[in-house]
Amino acid sequence: MRHRRTGRKFGRSPSHQRALLRSLASALMLTERDAEFDDNAPGVKGRIVTTLPKAKEVRPLVEKCITIARRGLAAVEAASAYAAPAERGADAWKAWRQSPRWGQWNQAIAPAVAARRRCLQLLGDKQAVDVLFREIAPRFVDRPGGYTRIVRLAKPRLGDAGVQAILEFVGVRDRVARRAERPTFEDSTETLQTVAAE
Q1: pTM value?
Q2: Is 140:70 a contact under the CB 8 Å cutoff?
Q3: Out of 27, 120, 151, 164, which residue is the most buried by the measure of CB atoms under 10 Å away?
């Protein structure tokens, strides 16, 4: 029996499962990077195509990383009040480094550094973590959760007919529900009155 044994195995060893999920999550983050002159530029930003079970399994990892990054951004904003007055190496920066404000900045920025390290531990890719903190997390600052969506594709994968799905970030290609306008019956009421009069 598989009671209380969550997660899919994908026919892989545990280390291979972790590597698979890390690479899928990193690939999704890296689609958001500026890859104008890159040989391997993503087709569509913020979207990857994979099998449905893999998409369902990697989604919690991606959402967890975004939540950690959002909390880290709050620490960066708090630390900006104690930021250095000049660039590194300047005399003003050296004086700031000796002042108590440096200690306050250090304490305020510590959660952001810890968040970056935790995301690096989960994703295993420095460039993906950089894209996460620079481009993805600021977009979801006001959103409490549900940063990704899974859309099942109708066309199965060639070779093994696996069910394919799109894993993408929400907020970019959202459908807008439009209600049809209510029809007006001004002419018909006049017609009904003339018919009733006859």
Answers
A1: 0.82
A2: yes
A3: 164
